[in-house]
């Protein structure tokens, strides 16, 4: 698994890429292989030892949405505020609403945050 990637000496390839062992490669949805097709509250103690590492925030948002689909219940969408405050008001037209909604700074939730009852959310 992942630990073997840190303990095995790999020869440094010319293009800074390595070949992953086949056990680290998913043939289907990664979340389904790690968490199963359905997640219930009774599964939480068993799921605490499982993790998906994502190289970028955009990847973690995709994984979070996929995991949310495995949880029972109705999804609720929470939207961020998409207004800007400027003293002179001139900069407002430089930041269209669509642009503001597309931003997801590190450590911040997406513009449309989907949650379900009993879903675990980390607040920083």
From TrEMBL:
Annotated source species: Rotaria socialis
Source species, domain of life: Eukaryota
Name of the molecule in the record: ATP-dependent DNA helicase
């Amino acid at each position: 698994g992942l630990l073997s990637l840190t303990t095995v000496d790999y020869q440094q390839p010319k293009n800074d890429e390595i070949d992953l062992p086949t056990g680290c490669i998913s043939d289907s949805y990664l979340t389904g292989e790690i968490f199963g097709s359905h997640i219930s509250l009774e599964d939480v103690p068993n799921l605490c030892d499982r993790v998906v590492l994502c190289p970028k925030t955009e990847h973690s948002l995709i994984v979070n949405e996929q995991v949310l689909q495995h949880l029972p219940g109705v999804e609720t969408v929470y939207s961020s505020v998409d207004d800007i405050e400027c003293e002179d008001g001139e900069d407002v037209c430089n930041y269209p609403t669509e642009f503001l909604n597309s931003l997801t700074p590190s450590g911040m939730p997406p513009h449309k945050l989907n949650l379900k009852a009993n879903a675990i959310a980390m607040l920083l």
